[in-house]
């Protein structure tokens, strides 16, 4: 069974979208990213999306965690699949996106976290 309610600290970006080294955390193309985000690509294609569309995918914040206590229940009821757009941003931990994000950042950027 996948772990739930994990949070993953990115630590390289702050809420104001400024990242370590002064690199901004912004979408490469806002229009394309918005369309891809609505199609569920943040979950279906995280390697590409987190690199090109971090703002759309909600990875510009410091912590990847569920925003609601009911997220685990909603995920168990299949909402991660049937309601991808909302669940990917509101309940990323319960939908397994934090683990994907953690893997992506470890693999691409060598960033370590404190789980």
Automatic annotation (TrEMBL):
Annotated Gene3D superfamilies: 1.10.10.1940
- ShKT domain: from which residue to which, for each copy? 25-60, 64-98
Q: Which InterPro entries match?
A: ShKT_dom (IPR003582)
This one is known as ShKT domain-containing protein
Q: Which organism is it from?
A: Chrysotila carterae
